[in-house]
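Session log. Operator J.P. requested a structure for one protein chain; no other inputs attached. Running the standard single-chain path with token output.
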Amino acid sequence: MKSGKSIIFILALSLIFMTILPQSSQADPLDNWIAVTSGTDNWLYGIAYGNNKFVAVGLFSTITSLTSPDGVVWTSNTSGSGVDVYHLNGIAFGNPFGNGIFVAVGVSGTILTSSDNGVSWIKRTSGTRHFLYGITYGDSIFVAVGESDTILTSTDGEIWTERFSGSFYELDGVTYGDSTFVAVGESGRIFTSTNGENWYLEDSGTDMCLTGVAYGNGTFVAVGQSGTIATSDHGINWTVGALELTGWLHAITFENGTFVAVGESGRIFTSPDGVSWTERTSGTIYTLEAVTHGSGKFAVVGGLGTILLDYDETPLDPVRIWRAHYIDYYKKIQDAYYWAWDGNIIEIQALQFNENLIFDTNKTVILRGGFNSTYSTNPSSTTINGSITISDGTVVVENIVIM
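Structure written below.
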């Protein structure tokens, strides 16, 4: 995929585009989601927010992290000196000793830390070769979980201690709440700990694989195979429900009074209590692997570099024309073109758009993409899918990726 470079096209005849732009609506919070141009086709498995930055991780060292201050414009960062190619499955932000750091975990016991918001990374010694799938931070402790019921803890992200390991099962997710760590995994396994050192196997009431867990509104909620939902007040006694899905739910988070769960085939569900759930329209068919909240919005990552933002908390006018004495904002590129004057520059945020564009006026217009949510910089690119018909005039395209 092209990204980070200006692509200039002088359009005089016709050109075929593609994009995705949901219709804006604020009737129901979290009912609308918008795709962002991530700049990568690699799978993204984890996302976290801290120090006013989103950081996403996934396959291969070329995308050890993708960072963004607002969730709209993303910058790719390599793993740094001395770090080879690692597949990363999860990430968390913590603030040990007042020093905010991101910690990412992955294959063969990989643990990487970053103290500069995901720009550079240092490999740490985990003490295990088991794959690590999930990580959280709570009570001044990082807890990572993975293959063979592996549980590791660290107070600083650098030195790690193995707390449990040796079975044939897999732990996929972990969270902290109500002064308790809860780890979930294969065959309905749930472990709890109040100090990160001593762990106890609980009766989940299900043998379905549990892949994600979150705490909010006084309730732990675990999600997993076939839409399985398990809830608990304190992490010990669990009640099992289900969405009766054919696929999996992979991750869950809680913020602003709402649980958000994501999974296969672009499925997104929200709930105020972990019991009653509403399915949302994500606009994608790709598997969604992780979800977090930051900068006033929920952010989701998944297959083929997919990044989604909850559209109700993002600027609803992602296209604008800067005129001499005022600025006009628009929801669609086509609308901006219609109202543009000869020589105007149309500025577009680094999102993905779905429009069939018709340029049929005798004027020269510049389409300049890749802007952040405040239009202050455009270091990234905008993705457009659809079609364009040009019967008159000239169009110059900059920082636009045409799929």
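Operator note: The CA atoms of residues 45 and 70 lie 19 Å apart.
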